[in-house]
């Protein structure tokens, strides 16, 4: 039997076409889903903007059918307060966005609201998202893009990370399949219901994702068709569920670049795998790196370091007396960082007197050595160097 909370979440999932800042404000004010759902049905004036948002669908009364359709494909509905809700990931991401300090969400500010419910088929989403990295890219990648995505996905999965992607053709499908081939888990975030597949021939792939320790996830009720705006909404969720996003073969103004923009706006680490200069499909990612808006990564170890030194390893001791051997550039960047505060990449470059791209590269190297840690607010020192002799 469904609980009142589950029925309310299913009802709101149908009548509210998220993301909804209006609904989020009511939740932030302490109202629960049951109270809000009842108010939507009654057309309570205190709903404010949510009243108009739900005008077209408020008389929907088939939420039990949605839940039955989900159960028929082995799916379930989770929501804030549910023991599977990935609260740590989502609260961090959308809490960062709500602070309004990121310049990356100016065009998407109204969409920077957390989901109020998620349909999930497969393993527990909270556990998968706790150790995850997102990997996205072109729908029609070239040979090199295919190889790069497969290599990264396999390597990340082999290190125990769930690979999050969008279930689409191209790099998304390669990411899912490669993670599975390495014996790892993967999460497919859809722009349609969890009982559907887009493209349709990915149904078997999505079944395999759910059956082999991963999950198929959507904000939309069973039976919901894919629509153009839903792909943009889906992109923010891909970015929110993982601490970092890697783009492989991302052209300017592509969906993958949109996910990278969301990553930056949600306090995640945007990353780009480099591509051949002769391939225009990589230009969008290269432009992000050149602008200091993404970090360049060449392997899974780079990714792991940037998303927070997942293994918690100690600094590499490879110099005399056990001290890390650093280049002059790395020393300049390390010295530019404040002992306790946090600085953005651009500010680090200015303090070190280096081009931004060079400073970013040094920050990646220092992170790998355990001397620097990337956080949503900026870079901070995570270790110490021996005092200099005279």
Write up this protein:
The protein has 390 residues and is of the alpha/beta class. It has helices spanning 4-15, 21-28, 33-42, 49-53, 63-72, 87-98, 125-130, 143-158, 171-181, 203-211, 228-240, 255-265, 283-290, 300-306, 328-336, 345-352, 356-368, and strands at residues 75-78, 118-122, 132-137, 162-165, 186-189, 215-218, 244-248, 269-273, 295-296, 372-375, 378-381. The relative contact order is 0.10. The protein folds into 3 domains: 1-60, no CATH class; 67-311, Rossmann fold; 328-381, Arc Repressor Mutant, subunit A, CATH 1.10.10. α8 (143-158) runs parallel beside α9, α14 crosses α17 and α15 crosses α17. The longest helix has 16 residues, at 143-158. β5 (186-189), α10 (203-211) and β6 (215-218) form a beta-alpha-beta unit.
């Amino acid at each position: 039997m469904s609980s009142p909370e589950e029925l309310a979440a299913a009802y709101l999932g149908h009548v509210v076409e998220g993301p909804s800042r209006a609904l989020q404000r009511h939740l932030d004010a302490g109202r629960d889903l049951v109270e809000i759902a009842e108010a939507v049905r009654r057309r309570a004036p205190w709903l404010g903007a949510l009243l108009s948002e739900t005008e077209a669908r408020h008389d929907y009364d088939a939420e039990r059918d949605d839940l039955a359709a989900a159960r028929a494909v082995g799916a379930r509905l989770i929501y804030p307060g549910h023991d599977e809700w990935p609260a740590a990931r989502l609260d961090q991401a959308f809490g960062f966005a709500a602070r309004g300090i990121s310049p990356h969400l100016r065009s998407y500010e109204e969409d920077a609201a957390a989901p109020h419910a998620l349909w999930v088929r497969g393993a527990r989403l909270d556990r998968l998202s706790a150790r995850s990295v997102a990997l996205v890219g072109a729908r029609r990648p070239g040979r090199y893009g295919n190889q790069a995505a497969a290599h990264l996905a396999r390597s990340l999965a082999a290190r125990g990370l769930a690979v999050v992607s969008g279930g689409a053709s191209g790099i998304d499908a390669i990411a899912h399949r490669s993670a599975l081939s390495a014996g790892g888990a993967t999460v497919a975030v859809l722009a349609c219901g969890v009982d559907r597949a887009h493209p349709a021939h990915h149904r078997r792939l999505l079944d395999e994702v759910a059956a082999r320790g991963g999950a198929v996830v959507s904000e939309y009720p069973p039976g919901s068709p894919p629509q153009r705006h839903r792909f943009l909404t889906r992109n923010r969720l891909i970015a929110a569920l993982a601490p970092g996003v890697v783009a492989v073969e991302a052209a300017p103004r592509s969906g993958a670049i949109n996910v990278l923009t969301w990553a930056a706006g949600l306090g995640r680490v945007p990353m780009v795998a480099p591509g051949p200069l002769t391939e225009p499909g990589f230009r969008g990612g290269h432009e992000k790196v050149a602008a200091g808006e993404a970090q360049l990564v060449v392997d899974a170890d780079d990714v792991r370091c940037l998303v927070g030194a997942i293994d918690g390893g100690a600094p590499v001791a490879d110099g005399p007396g056990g001290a890390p051997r650093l280049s002059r550039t790395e020393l300049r960047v390390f010295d530019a960082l404040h002992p306790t505060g946090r600085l953005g990449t651009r500010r680090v470059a200015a303090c070190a007197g280096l081009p931004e791209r060079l400073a970013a590269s040094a920050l990646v190297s220092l992170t790998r050595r355990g001397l620097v840690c990337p956080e949503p607010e900026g870079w901070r020192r995570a270790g110490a160097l021996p005092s200099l002799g005279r």
